[in-house]
Amino acid sequence: MTNKELLAAERGTVRKDWTGKIRIALAYPNRYHVGMSNLGFHAIYRLLNDYQDVVCERVFLPEENGAIHGGLRSIESQRPLDNFDIIAFSISFENDYPNVLALLTEAGIPRWSSERDTPYPLVIAGGVTAFLNPEPIAPFVDCFLVGEAEPILGPFLDVYRSHSDKQELLQTLAINVPGIYVPGLYDVAYNPNGTIAEFRPKSGAPAKVQRVVLHDLSSLDTCSVILTPHTTFRDTYLVEAGRGCPYGCRFCATGFVYRPPRFRAKDALENCLEKGGIRSNRIGLMAPALLDVPYMAELCQKVLGLGVQLSFSSLRADRLTEKLLDVFKRSGLKTVTIAPDAGSERMRRVINKGMTDQDVLRAADLLVGAGIPNLKLYFIVGLPTETMSDVEAIVALCKQVKHRFLKASRTTQRIGQIIVSLNSFIPKPSTPFQWVPLENVKILKAKIKHVKDGLRRVANVRVHADLPRWAYIQALLSRGDRRTAYLLAAVHDNNGNWAKTLKASVINADFYVHRERPLDEILAWDFIDHGINKAFLVEEYYKALREESSPPCDVGRCKACGVCK
Where in the sequence is the domain holding 539, given as residue range(s)? Predict the structure, then answer.
């Protein structure tokens, strides 16, 4: 589909006259259907267009083999990207970093920040990658919004309005606006062994960049702005019910960088659901800990009375209730996703999952009993301390779930499918596992093969797995420092050929991917202050090695991590 065809198919698009406006291109470095499935992208688009002196239009990576005539153009007005004052990248996944360069190149804009001045647009970036580790793309970006955008956008625009000189603007932003990181105002020195020796601010920039958080989720709605059939969710009105996760799984960045976990107030969430029921007959509820919203079942039952279908993000197996099961049944759900993450209870203690085999099996019984035919099980291989015995436990647990499916399906006279999703563990910044290496790619392949072989002949069970070679690239981009930018530039010049790029580069990617980090090493992302004490992350890492669990967040009462002061 062309941009014009997409725009004609959409409803509710915000369009404004450009005269006298701050012109912002909100760029998602992936295809249209991926970007428009991202609720955060919708939220920023609406927030920016709510400012009277701002016009924000969307830009996506061209469709496969899509022809570009006259440069990359926006969806709304078909204006070239280099006609905008600001290009704002919203980046959710490290694997999209190469696409940032692709978009800039398509627009005829220099990739390196140092090569851009007037009349080129200011290039900024936000999204979760910006407050995990922005360093691999730091040389390409003028400034990052570190944290949740809602509290940052207003102060950012206030400063932008009063400065015409780029360097003065960036310096003022870095000094006066919390959450703004300007890479050009920091120098990095390295030790002879390649590790970081010092991260030095200059020109008055702060030594630490404070991650900014929206404390009251209910103060702003986070819902779909544009409904379109050309997305993963097909005309589904998405609603954010909560942000952050209280469980603190040690591999998961969401449970740490979004602290404290917050839920939308009952009346605010009800208002979102009612608006969604007017605009669509499908509503998708999103939150990392969706079933922890205390009034979730009550609100869902109310919305179902309006004739709306509901769908849900991944659910915790140990949080299912009879009321929720009734909601699932009335919604006509065909598939529910639960994430045991590890096959053995030992590994779940290591990662602090807080879930037993019986929790998973009970969930299977309840879901099939509620008439939901298909179950998706999410697992991770390559976790710290994992053995082949733990991998075999994934096979054994899946077979037990299949047995429960057969038993529970006798009354319905049909059995659905169990879809097993296998993913390689990626060490993420600002988690208790940030110091551990990615497991060897050959070993990851062997573990995935073991699970596939073990379930190959089990009827109605399908196994989907990621490719460990791409896990390697993701780990590189998750853990890399500024020098990784030169690899990204080279892979762009090599048309995306990572194998050729890594073979020819003087930069040793294994240094970032397969090296265990000493606990006292300066990490590339250490300049970001999430409010979490590093000693807390270290203790959680040691508890993982001791196979000890930690309790969920007790917001406002627990002081362990340091976020709730």
Answer: 236-479+531-545
